[in-house]
Amino acid sequence: AYYWKHRWGHEVALFWGAHVAHHQSEDFNLGTALRQTSMDFYGFLFYLPFFLLGYPSEVLFTVVSLNLIYQFWVHTEHVPKLGPIEWVFVTPSNHRVHHGRNAMYVDRNYGGVFIIWDRIFGTFQDELEAESVYFGLRKPLNSWNPLWANVHVYWRLILDCVAVPGLKNKLLLSLRAPGWRAQNQSTSCRQKRLQADLRAKFNPRISTFSRYYTLIQFFATVGLSLYVLINAAAWAYLDCLVAVCFLAFTYFVHGCWLEGRRYGVLLEGFRLLLASAICLYFVAGTDTQLFALAYLMTSVVSLIIGRADSDSGVTEGVTIGSGAA
Q1: In the chain, what's the furthest Cα-to-Cα distance?
Q2: Taking a C-beta distance cutoff of 8 angstroms, is the pair 239, 291 a contact?
Q3: 252 with 190, same domain?
Q4: Is the pTM of the predicted complex or chain greater than 0.90?
Q5: Residues 109, 142: Cα–Cα separation, whole Å
Q6: What is the C-alpha separation between 50 and 1, in angstroms, rounded?
Q7: What Rg, from alpha-carbon coordinates, does the chain have?
Q8: Do residue 101 and residue 187 come from a single domain?
Q9: SS3 114
Q10: Please, is 54 exposed, middle or buried when counting C-beta atoms within 10 Å of its C-beta (0-12, 13-18, 19+)?
Q11: 1, 188, 218, 238: which has the fewest Cβ within 10 Å?
Q12: Distance (Å, whole) CA 36 – CA 58
């Protein structure tokens, strides 16, 4: 079931949009395993037949969980080929192939635990010494915006559906392979611009202050996310919605900083104003208010002091740096 779920996640445009976030990283490490989409809406369809056939839910949940845990360790470049194990199990070597954007490595090695399914269904590709693996998308995301990372495929799919005539063609765009076009229909300019230099990595030029400020804010936001998760059950629905929207906006602002956007300073100032209002509503009069006040004051002072550094010689936008993956 997992093999076909994973394979359809690559070979059906609608499902690719739900899986693409996992493949956007141009590095390959254990952190890549944790890079998961928030749009996985279709996976249950592949396990539903087992429920209908009467398989105990405990067994299915256990198998799915073990499958997921196993896949964590295979996201690494530090483990070489493992001899005969490569014939049966998914290993770091054959999973590196799966994440490669080299033409010969694209859409290969879908197995989660057992690589034998790829050997049976003709999707296996060995990692070759003569062909180094370069990771990421054929058309790179080139953004640190987490919201765009989750929706960019769907947005482009919508634009392409609007551009092509006929309901049938619009449906086929979603159900065929990514980039598919009907006969005599040209490929959109967005789909045509594939990465020419496989070694190139997304490498924005940003100031030292921006790097450390964003890092500290990221950890603070993760802490805030945990706080929301712990307390959400006791909150009203509207309160939860406000908190989630604020967190999403915060991660978006982090992305702007990491991309070296000059308007990131303005967005951060606006975010801190929002944070002040939200703190007054959520934590005023509680034991948490002192921590919230200290965080806000530290952030504002850091932003004022560091703005000069942020504006000194840093060009807006991004650059693409070369380097082996």
Answers
A1: 66
A2: no
A3: no
A4: no
A5: 25
A6: 9
A7: 23
A8: no
A9: strand
A10: exposed
A11: 238
A12: 24
Residue 267 makes CB contacts below 8 A (sequence gap 6+) with: 252, 253, 256
Number of domains in the chain: 3
> Average pLDDT by consecutive 10-residue portion of the chain (325 residues)?
93 92 94 86 85 88 92 95 95 96 94 96 95 92 91 90 85 84 55 62 86 91 92 91 94 92 88 87 74 82 70 46 40
Q: Helices (DSSP H) in 232-288: which residue ranges?
A: 237-258, 264-282
Give the pLDDT of residue 107.
94
Give Cβ neighbours of residue 188 (< 8 Å, ≥ 6 apart). Answer: 156, 159, 160, 163
Task: Enter the tokens of residue 315.
Answer: 């060009």
244 found inside a domain: yes
One domain for residues 213 and 188: no
Classify 183 as helix, strand or coil.
coil
Within a domain: residue 318?
no
The residue type of 16 is W
Q: Residue 288: inside a domain, yes or no?
A: yes
Q: Are 105 and 130 in contact (CB under 8 A)?
A: no
Number of H helices, E strands in the chain: 14, 2
Same domain, 165 and 60: no
Task: List the structure tokens of 238.
Answer: 């509207």
Q: Domain check: are 223 and 275 in the same one?
A: yes
Q: Residue 18: is it exposed, middle or buried by C-beta count within 10 angstroms (0-12/13-18/19+)?
A: buried
What 75-83 contacts at long range (C-beta under 8 Å, 24+ apart), as own/partner pairs, is 75/28, 75/29, 75/30, 75/31, 75/32, 75/33, 75/99, 76/28, 76/29, 76/30, 77/28, 77/29, 81/127
85/173 same-domain check: no
Q: Are residues 171 and 73 part of one domain?
A: no
Rounded CA separation 209/85 (Å):
47
Residue ending a domain, choose from 86, 121, 156: 121
Residue 27 belongs to domain spanning: 2-121
Q: Could you give phi then psi for residue 143, rounded to 5 degrees?
A: -160, 150
Alpha-carbon distance of 40 to 47, in angstroms, equals: 14
